[in-house]
Amino acid sequence: xxxRKLWLxxxxxxxxxxxxxxxxxxxxxxxxxxxxxxxxxxxxxCGGERCIKCTNCEKxxxxxxRNSVPENWYSKNLGL
Length: 80
Ligand SMILES: [Zn+2]
Fold this sequence. Notes:
The chain contains 1 helix and 3 strands. The protein has one domain (3-65).
């Protein structure tokens, strides 16, 4: 599968489970982890950016959530 598609797959997995174990589409060695950055920390429902990054090669992709945020949006930052 081409790399772009694998990143999209990863985004989908994280949308349902923020602790998903996903192998990096780039180096195929590291695992991916997410960091959510809200546009407005006082109102996280406004959405923001989700950075999906590899623990090994540090390659990352940014996903924008503007109107519909995933259910687990920001959950890691809230310690849930
Ligand atoms: Zn990697």
